Known about the structure:
The complex is a heterodimer. Helix content of chain A is 69%, strand content 0%. The relative contact order of chain A is 0.19. In chain A, helix 3 (42-66) packs antiparallel against helix 7. By secondary structure, chain A is an all-alpha fold. Chain B is α+β, with helices and mostly antiparallel strands. Chain B has a domain at 60-210. Chain B has helices at 18-59, 184-210, and strands at residues 75-78, 86-93, 96-106, 114-121, 126-133. In chain B, a hairpin with a 2-residue loop joins strand 2 and strand 3 (96-106). The longest helix of chain B is centred in the first third of the chain and has 42 residues, at 18-59. Classes of the chains: A mainly alpha, B alpha+beta. Chain A binds chain B through residues 6, 62, 66, 68-74, 78, 81-82, 84-86, 88-90, 92-93, 95-97, 99, 103, 124, 128, 160-161, 164, 167-168, and chain B through 1-3, 5, 7-8, 10, 16-17, 19-20, 22-24, 26-28, 30-32, 34-35, 37-39, 41-42, 45-46, 49, 52-53, 137-140.
Amino acid sequence: MNDVNPGKPxxxxxxxxxxxxxxxxxxxxxxxxxxxxxxxxxxxxVALGLASLAVLCASNVLVAAVGHGVPPRFRSAAFLxxxxxxxxxxxxxxxxxxxxxxxxxxxxxxxxxTNCLILGRAEAFAVHQGPWPALxxxxxxxxxxxxxxxxxxxxxxxxxxxxLVAALPAGAFFLLAALVALRQAWHSRRRAA
Amino acid sequence: xxxxxxxQPLRPHQPAGARSxxxxxxxxxxxxxxxxxxxRYARQDIADNADRQALAELSAVLPASLYDNEPHxxxxxxxxxxxxxxxxxxxxxxxxxxxxxLTVIAPDGYVGPVRxxxxxxxxxxxxxxxxSAHTETPGIGAAIAATSPDWLGTFxxxxxxxxxxxxxxxxxxxxDFDAIAGATVxxxxxxxxxxxxxxxxxxxxxxxxxxxxxxxxxx
Lengths: 193, 219
């Protein structure tokens, strides 16, 4: 994993890092549980992606603002609690505003807590940074994750009528693997050139 | 400010200190504020949504012209044969029973149980059937829940006399109902679930409308 050097990366670098170079789903292969479960259609994929993005940005900003007040040995617990609270809040707002969509992805919204990407960014990045770079970091990772969830969802929705396996969780694994392979192929070609 | 990344060595006997305590309390306060605020903000909308959805689900199996009460609030929990109490919604017109929507669970789906809403008129005819929850295979058994083609529409207007009890099953079992191609097991489960709902309604009709408990319950 080519992680960010927690020094002073520029805003563009922070965004690109989460969006592409270290993209959770495609490069570091984390956050796969919601990725595979909620990517059955474009709408559910984008919905869960945006919910994750909201939680990630809010958690990053809050952790950047108050995180260093927490003694290091309590940080995992405190941040996880904070993330759980944010997910609960997003879950409630989601139910209140987009009830129809909630019927399809509601099951997976509480599981955003278990997306290790969010706690990971809080501990590895946000706590060492100011709120502004932390927000950018959240946006980069969140947007990359949303794009992947939406893309995978669209792909599965398109393929489902002709290729039954695309609608099943197993199909999501195959398609994700294909996307990861594509990304790797593109990178190795660029490196060779 | 603490700038290093790794875990600091644990020193369990060292007192946490006032500043760390303040940090922890701050996080806890933030947590309470977030969840409490979101709940206050969303509570009413969520209740309204649930109410609207309950009514919308019922309207698919219960024509609105049939009743003038609020069936989604006129609920009793009855064990219709599955071993657990499930909601039964009662439709009345001028206080007279017009029909009911039974929730039944067909345990014998291909993958898992299939949950059905079966609307039945007071004279014992099927008003409509909807699958409210299932885990059948996408693209195959899941077709039982589809509204186009509306396979569930074949039940509308049927009664326990039409067809007679021995033919209240799928065609491959000698019955009158076409199974969905490739999904005989799922289809058989639904037909059986509807039949059991009809039989329960026929034998317990008076009890269903007489029960007083749970009126205005919301599940």
